[in-house]
Amino acid sequence: NLNLDAEFLLSGVSELDLVTGGTPSILLVHGELSFPLCLDSSHRCLLAAARYGRGRVVVATHESQLFSPKLARFLLNAVHWLDAGRKGLVGVDASLKKLCSLLCREEVKAQVSQLTGDISVYCCSSYSDREAEGLHSFVAEGGGLLVGGQAWYWASQNHGKAAVAKYPGNKILNRFGLSILGRSVPAAKHPAVRSGEHYHFRKALALFSRHVDEREELRSPLKDWLQRLSQDCAAFLHIPALDCPAYASLHRILTKVLQRSGIPPVSRHCPVKSNSKEAVLLCMATELSLTMTDSAALVQKSAAEVCALPITVEIDGTNPGEERQTAWRSTGLYLPEGHTAVITFPCLAVGSGLKVQIGCHTDDLSHAAELKRAPVVIRTCDIACQKQTISCLWGGLIYIIVPARSVLGKVPISVEGAVRAPFFKLGETCESQWKACIRHYPAPWAELAVENLILTVPSDSIRHMENPRPLLTLWNEIMVAISKLAAIPTKFPRPERIVTDVQISCG
């Protein structure tokens, strides 16, 4: 009974003072046998526990919480619960010597030790996955594990990597139904979780699924949990579900919810409030699609007509920019929503740092109070093989991202599954072809380019334009004037871009 477990762990504890000298992270509690012990007013979890096999686990969100005198009562409860009545030896990793001293003062048999077969409870930080397999076996066979650590610093140093999947501690904890997220919260005092109605990811998801099925009025507690549920869904879906039935089953639940409800419309004329059922569905759809090689199953629209034959284009694989100054190379192609493109690269492109990006609207609107489009509408992937498959729920223009200091030169690529997009470059595109056919290409987004600038605009705004040359000549003069004013070379290392968006994150 998890309620009895929580009562034992919090016996004599009415408040948990987490002001212990460090900034904590947030926990995602996603296992059926995992449960929160400390929640803030936004339902973010800061302490949690779980059962796994014959063993038990308690997780803190900063290692300083594991030896704070303020939390002595809780820590003693935790060690006794993890020990499960064996009165065995508590092994403490050398990085947590202060915890060993605290336990010894309370007459608990504890010593600084590595993970060995003669200990009942093991205490360590979450900063290494060196003993992951050993810890999994230790807990499964009945051992108790007390872990503490934050993941926000790791996340700040590993941009583009999901802490929930890649952070060392989570390679240990995910299996127990607990994960440390790469976000921080201010350290503060919080009331201990008591029996009764409180947030749990699985409970909230079950209520949400029922709400969608029965189309009932949104009410508490689900109404108060929506924002947390949306954020937890986004985090959870970054955990690889391959070969893990528990994760895969949740993926199936989310897919069924979306298929039954449909993806809600969102636009300038049909905005979506952030704390709403529709916002949760948009987040679910986006994140779930990123786990799929083909997101067509989530799109309930008629299939767009894509080109029957592969289209070959050539992109500039050279980028003299400084570190982190990537360059977007337009392909003049568009991937319709829910479709899958197969892009073939030459051998030299594989492992060279090139990426494929679908979509140009990179602003993340996850924290907006109102949405006029889905919060995240692009998808990026590394080029790991010659035939790269990529799908995007929302569709978008296809780009090749070239890393700084790349010297690949001209790179031919072949794309299947896309449609042509209107594209005009001053001095290169034939004006008669533009007038006759290019401006009528079916993609909903178009690009107009000069040497140092590319404008990305809705295709409807340029289809009437018989000759873009006067407009682009003006823009070219503007960019030359900018270079003179800035006293920099007339040719920029990469073109600047102006992308029109129905909603931006700032300004």
From TrEMBL:
PANTHER family, per database record: EXPERIMENTAL AUTOIMMUNE PROSTATITIS ANTIGEN 2-RELATED, SI:CH211-210B2.2-RELATED
Top-level division of the source organism's lineage: Eukaryota
SMART domains: M60-like
Record PROSITE patterns: PEPTIDASE_M60
Cellular component, GO, one term: plasma membrane
GO BP, one annotated term: positive regulation of protein targeting to membrane
A GO MF label: transmembrane transporter binding
UniProt name for this protein: TCAF2 factor
Stretches assigned to the Peptidase M60 domain: 326-507
Pfam families xref list: M60-like_N (PF17291), Peptidase_M60 (PF13402)
